[in-house]
Structure formats: C-alpha cells, structure tokens
Specification:
6 helices; alpha+beta; disordered C terminus; 174 residues
C-alpha cells in the first residue's frame, strides 16, 4: 500500500493517454474510457469519479475476429490475461475469456464484439506502452469467413496465465 497513490496516479494518467492514442489509430472503431467526452456515461463518471478515469480502457477493432487475431499475433510485449490488474499492462479479449459462455447475440447486446478488448493499464512509461499497440491495417487482415471451421489462434481461445513477470526495465518503468 505504500506506493498505491503513485501507482494509481501513473496508471490513470497513462490510461487516459492510451485511450486518446487508440482513438486516433486507423482501424479502431471505438474506445471506452470514462473521462472521454464520447463515453456513453461520461457525465456520470466525471461526477462519480471526480474526473479520474481509472486504469481500465476498452477498445474495439474493425475487421472482426480476423483483425482481433492479427492484433494478438502482433502484440509482442503485451501480456494477455483472463483477469486484469497488475503493475504491468494486461489485455483481455472478453469474447474468448470472461464472456465466452454468452451467445454471440447476448455478447453483441452488451457491446462485446469479436474485435473488442479490455486493457488494464500498468505503470509503464506512456509512450512505450502506446508504441506497443500494433493495430494492423485492415488491408493486411484476411476478412472473417462465417462459413470457416478453422479454429482461431490458441491465444484467443484460452489465454495462458502470465508465467513470468517482465522486469521493470523491459516494460519501461521508471
């Protein structure tokens, strides 16, 4: 708890910057971060959270599952995890983890699409973290084939727990 305030302030500031950077990336359909003016509950979150957005950012990629798979393959240095909340940034793909038991229709009703990700922002240097987001251009992605029986990459079916924790220097910590 000694360093909680420092970690919280850093994660919150980095999450806001990451949300802004993701919103400007081609192929990103939407970004959900409570203090962004385009967030559906922006006014409520500013009132309840006192202008603090926290460390959770969600975003949706155009291109469906194929784009999500391409993102996962290109996301070297970003840890994928079924649960969120670590000193290092972790990413979750709700369609194949926390919300996998729901039907596609039920997921769609709550905004969980094949291209939707959640990010738990850690204490990395903001510029280093932003540069780690390799959103591949749609032109490099093979469109989803609804008749395909090909299984997605294993990393999107089941996220393995993080076995090793990166060093502070490898994730850009001060």
């Amino acid at each position: 708890l000694y360093s909680f305030d420092l970690r919280y302030d850093r994660c919150t500031a980095t999450a806001a910057r990451l949300g802004a950077a993701l919103a400007d990336m081609p192929g990103v359909l939407r970004v959900l971060y409570p203090t962004r003016s385009d967030h559906p509950d922006h006014n409520r979150s500013v009132s309840l959270l006192g202008g603090e957005g926290g460390h959770m950012v969600s975003f949706e990629l155009a291109g469906g599952r194929a784009q999500a798979n391409a993102f996962v393959r290109a996301a070297e240095g970003l840890n994928f995890a079924p649960t969120l909340g670590d000193i290092a940034t972790t990413i979750s793909h709700p369609e194949t983890s926390s919300h996998r038991a729901l039907t596609p229709e039920a997921r769609g009703e709550i905004g969980i699409t094949p291209g939707f990700f959640r990010i738990s922002v850690g204490c990395e240097a903001p510029d280093a973290l932003i540069s780690a987001f390799p959103v591949p251009p749609l032109s490099q992605v093979t469109p989803d084939d609804p008749t395909s029986t090909e299984a997605p990459p294993a990393s999107l079916v089941t996220f393995d727990p993080i076995v090793t924790v990166p060093s502070a220097s490898s994730v850009g910590l001060m």
